[in-house]
């Protein structure tokens, strides 16, 4: 396969220049949740537009009520058409003091085990991962003057805040985005040396609950033991949601289908060990359902979490008050067949039924997305073959506990499945201080895409 080999060699020769180019993009603080960063988000969209135009893509810049969407296409008449999805927005950097270097000044660092990595916000989620595909396309174009497939790229700037306006954009632009297969690079490998194809994603449901009691904060000496404390009430309510690893909302599990015996056997063969998996983050034992494997806890079972809680005095020192108001930001990860609307309504009813006297409860529902499960696996064999050729071992076929909101919407609107092939590592610290992306993942990830494009065009 001399053409494939030439493309791989061209890719490898360009790695130093490519990393420098990626660093330019990483310097743009495109934090989608921060309104003050709107101009930076536009700048990040413009940067990737120029990069794609440089390698011959025709690009269109689409305004939305939020951040812009970029669509780029490199046509190849008669070839299969694929759509590649990614996002240029990034998470906030807080807490900033925990970063070992400026989060928007990328640096190549050597990790304790000798691995080289590029450290910056967005390095792994998702700018570095997205660029592996761009560099793969560049290698094909530089080598042959074309691509093996008809390729459309869609990159958005609001994935980290739920892709709120993207489904509407996809609905309006079905013809522009028409394709035979969708690919995305925003997931992890199974382990440091084993690639993975992700066959399912959990859905996401986010919101806030606010408890109000007295009409003001009260003196804990004058009113202690007599007046309701909003923080106490909030904590008591939250403690009722999950009991012994199971979520206690009525009928919460009714819509969930049990995995097949073959799938459970495949998960068992992955050998995911609680002590190893949780030991890396200073924990020892899963809090999930006792009759389920750890792989199920994080891949195919729903979960509930409190993401933040506030109430009462938060300043330096002490202040002896009884809190009049307290709030919690909460989220559910949902699995196949669970409807976010139904779950949130059930959550509200369950919480209100537990409310004590003299208290009120307000809910603010935020982002919601359904889960995704791959149903059409016709191209999975070709992709697995390409990954095995690059990594020297067969990929793991896994589920992921994370959510990528638009993936289930692609399937609903375009009627097309997505193959999720990412090269992140579990220690990439995405959404946390000191996010990084292994240089090896970047190099071999790009090489994997070179091979995947070739393999898909050969079938």
Relevant terms:
459 residues, alpha+beta, four-stranded antiparallel sheet, 20 strands, globular
Structure description:
With 459 residues, the chain is α+β, with helices and mostly antiparallel strands. Helices cover 35% and strands 22% of the residues. The strands form six sheets. A six-stranded mixed beta sheet has the order 1-2-6-3-7-19, with helices on both faces. Strands 13-15-9-16 form a four-stranded antiparallel beta sheet. A three-stranded antiparallel beta sheet has the order 4-5-20. A hairpin with a 5-residue loop joins strand 4 and strand 5 (116-119). The radius of gyration is 24 Å and the shape is globular. The mean pLDDT is 95.
Topology (SSEs and partners):
Blueprint: H1 2-13, H2 15-26, H3 38-54, E1 58-62, E2 69-74, E3 81-87, E4 107-110, E5 116-119, H4 127-144, E6 150-156, H5 166-172, H6 174-177, E7 181-184, E8 196-201, E9 203-212, E10 218-219, H7 220-223, H8 230-239, E11 242-243, E12 246-247, H9 261-269, H10 274-279, H11 294-299, E13 303-311, E14 321-322, E15 325-334, H12 340-353, E16 360-369, E17 372-373, H13 380-391, E18 396-400, H14 405-414, E19 418-420, E20 436-438, H15 439-457
Parallel strand pairs: 3-6, 3-7, 7-19, 8-18
Antiparallel strand pairs: 1-2, 2-6, 4-5, 5-20, 8-17, 9-15, 9-16, 10-14, 11-12, 13-15
The mean pLDDT is: 95
Q: How much beta, percentage-wise?
A: 15-25%
Give the N-to-C terminal Cα separation: 15 Å
Which stretches are poorly predicted, pLDDT < 50 over at least 5 residues? none
How many DSSP E strands? 20
Largest sheet, in brief, is: 6 strands, mixed
């Amino acid at each position: 396969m001399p053409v494939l080999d030439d493309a791989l060699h061209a890719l490898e020769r360009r790695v130093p220049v490519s990393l420098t180019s990626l660093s330019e993009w990483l310097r743009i603080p495109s934090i989608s949740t921060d309104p003050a960063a709107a101009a930076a988000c536009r700048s990040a969209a413009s940067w990737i537009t120029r990069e794609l135009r440089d390698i011959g893509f025709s690009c269109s810049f689409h305004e939305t009520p939020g951040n812009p969407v970029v669509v780029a296409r490199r046509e190849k008449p008669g070839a299969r058409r694929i759509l590649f999805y990614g996002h240029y927005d990034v998470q906030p950097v807080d807490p900033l003091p925990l970063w070992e270097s400026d989060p928007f000044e990328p640096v190549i660092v050597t990790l304790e085990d000798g691995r080289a990595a590029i450290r910056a916000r967005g390095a792994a989620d998702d700018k570095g991962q997205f660029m592996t595909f761009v560099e793969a396309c560049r290698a094909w174009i530089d080598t042959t003057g074309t691509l093996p497939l008809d390729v459309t790229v869609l990159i958005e700037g609001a994935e980290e805040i739920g892709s709120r306006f993207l489904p509407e954009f996809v609905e309006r632009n079905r013809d522009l985005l028409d394709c035979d297969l969708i690919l995305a690079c925003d997931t992890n490998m199974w382990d440091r040396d084993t690639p993975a194809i992700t066959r399912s994603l959990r859905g996401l449901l986010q919101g806030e609950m606010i408890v109000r009691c007295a009409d003001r904060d009260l003196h804990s000496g004058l009113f202690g033991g007599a007046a309701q404390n909003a923080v106490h009430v909030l904590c008591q309510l939250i403690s009722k949601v999950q009991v012994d690893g199971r979520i206690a909302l009525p009928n919460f599990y009714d819509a969930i289908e049990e995995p097949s015996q073959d799938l459970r056997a495949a998960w068992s063969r992955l050998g995911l060990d609680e002590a190893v998996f949780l030991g890396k983050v200073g924990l020892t034992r899963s809090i999930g359902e006792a009759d389920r494997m750890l792989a199920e806890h994080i891949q195919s079972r729903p979960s509930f979490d409190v993401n933040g809680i506030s109430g009462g005095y938060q300043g330096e020192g002490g202040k002896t008050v009884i809190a009049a108001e307290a709030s919690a930001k909460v989220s559910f990860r949902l699995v196949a067949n669970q409807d976010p609307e139904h779950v949130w309504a059930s959550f509200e009813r369950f919480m209100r039924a537990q409310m004590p006297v003299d208290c009120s409860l307000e809910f603010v529902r935020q982002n919601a997305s359904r889960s995704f499960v791959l149903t059409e696996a016709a191209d999975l064999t070709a992709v697995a073959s390409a990954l095995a050729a690059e990594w020297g071992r067969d990929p793991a076929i896994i589920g992921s506990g994370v959510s990528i909101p638009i993936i289930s919407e692609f399937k609903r609107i375009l009627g097309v499945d997505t193959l999720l092939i990412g090269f992140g590592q579990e220690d990439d610290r995405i959404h946390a201080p000191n996010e990084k992306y292994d240089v090896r993942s970047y190099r071999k990830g790009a090489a994997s895409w070179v091979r995947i494009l070739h393999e898909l065009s050969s079938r």
